[in-house]
Amino acid sequence: MVVGKFNYTASGMAPRAHLAIYKVTVNRSDSLKAFEQAISDGVDVINLSKGSDPKNNFYLDTAAFSGYKALEKNICISVSAGNLGKPESLSHSAPWLTVVGASWPDRRLAAAVRLGDGSEFIGETGFYQPTQFNSSIFLPVVYPGANNKTQTLGCWNGSLSGINVKDKIVLCWSGKDNVNKGRVVMAAGGAAMILMGPIQNTRNDRHVLPVSHVSQGDAQKIIDYYKSSGGSSTPTATIIFKGQESGRRPAPAIAGFSSRGPSLTNGGILKPDVIAPGFEILGASPVQGGPFKNYFKFDSGTSMAAPHVAGVMALIKKKYPTWSPAAIQSAIITSADDVDLAGRRFTDMKTWKPADIFARGAGHLNPPKAMDPGLVFDRNIGDYIGYMCGLGYNAATMQLIAGRPVNCSTVKKIKASQLNYPSIMVTLKSTSPNETVVRTVTNVGDVNSMYKPMITHPGNASVILSINRLQFSAQQTKASFDVTISMVPPAPKKGTITEGKLEWISNNHLVRSPIAVVFG
């Protein structure tokens, strides 16, 4: 029983996998050593839930630099996209890394706030007291922030001195260290806390007293009730702990904090690759928290999303031990769901509008489908050498990354859009209104199979294929095709981004490649 309410078995993505844990700190040397040791130990998958400067090239980005060494040993790498929540803020973007953004789930640990006038607002909490907190008793509500002072609005340390909160429910605005706000309230004698806003997202932290965290919109209604009570009556409320509730919509959705593309450094490859659960994920904790003395907590971030993908990588590698990291990455990307549970475009929780392609990548991780992708887009070390030469890396940098001398003048350079990547991203200009990219797929599905294409054209662009079907009579056979993407007049404003997709459909498989078009 983790938080006093639930009593069932929890499992990771790959429950039989052996975990090897390596110390990674802010020092780059520790991260480099961790990768070096993991490679030496012969691991199959590496997960790095650690950020990097979005402007770092592949040599300065530890994940890209050391990940290339791991790639040479056939090791898959999953990395977090970052938690900056804005465009062009990806922590990592090398094509040999699977970059993972965070999604918001369809469940919550619900704690309802019921006001004295009967109004009810559903919030969240990570603390349950069904025996210690009597939800049938309405308690007085106090709002220290009514004076609009920053300290009392946020229930900072010492801010409740001189305010009578004993045996009352205290209204506090959320911010940094929300758990400590509860400690302040409890130390002052408060019975419970309603944590408010400041955005629409709510959280279930390991609070030390009864708490419901409500959205900004609901918070304003609660404050309005408090102020309207005035001198005529005492505002009251209670908190009703409802346990885990599922069915929240929209879900999955893009977490507001999840970093977005496009990449500043990879030359034009769509990142993040996919999104995965990264909001209020139950995991182990090195310290105890809350009134329940255990070592578990709910946490959020792309650092929680990337391990989900790492687990699926382990499952795929177990099933297909000869597959390359690129093939495994391809399986994850092309099988991702591109709509939410209601069949609609993913919602961006930062804006409450449909999420764009640089927030969601190919879509949401779908483990069962990733285990049977049908077709894969494969690559090898030589492809990455040509790609990095195409980025303009000099001989010194190439030797550092590749670990050997590389003469780019003798290497066939590969433009980012021409790398055999599962997704497609091109830049169209009035001076170059079309681009043709080549893709090669390998059949890993049915021995005898035929795939027909379905195209969703990006806005202001058309997509034309060189073939109208893919026919296979054996596994591991390959087929190549051209994809020509052309601007459709009138030319959109510079910087406009539109999106589409290319789907190859057989009797048993659907292989999806997202398409991003940037107009320059």
From TrEMBL:
Domain Peptidase S8/S53 residue range list: 7-339
Occurrences of domain Subtilisin-like protease fibronectin type-III (ranges): 418-517
Kindly indicate where the leader peptide sits in this chain. none
Query: Which Gene3D superfamilies would you find in this protein's record?
Result: 2.60.40.2310, 3.50.30.30, Peptidase S8/S53 domain
Q: Which InterPro entries match?
A: PA_domain (IPR003137), Peptidase_S8/S53_dom (IPR000209), Peptidase_S8/S53_dom_sf (IPR036852), Peptidase_S8_Ser-AS (IPR023828), SBT (IPR045051), Subtilisin-like_FN3 (IPR041469)
The answer to whether UniProt assigns keyword Signal to this entry is: yes
UniProt keywords (A-Z) are:
Hydrolase, Protease, Serine protease, Signal
Indicate the segments forming the PA domain, all copies.
Answer: 139-222
Which Pfam families does this chain map to?
fn3_6 (PF17766), PA (PF02225), Peptidase_S8 (PF00082)
Q: Name one GO biological process term.
A: proteolysis
Give the source's domain of life in one word. Eukaryota
A Gene Ontology MF term for this entry? serine-type endopeptidase activity
Family stated for the protein in its record: Belongs to the peptidase S8 family.
Could you identify this protein by its name?
Uncharacterized protein
Task: Tell me the organism.
Answer: Dioscorea zingiberensis
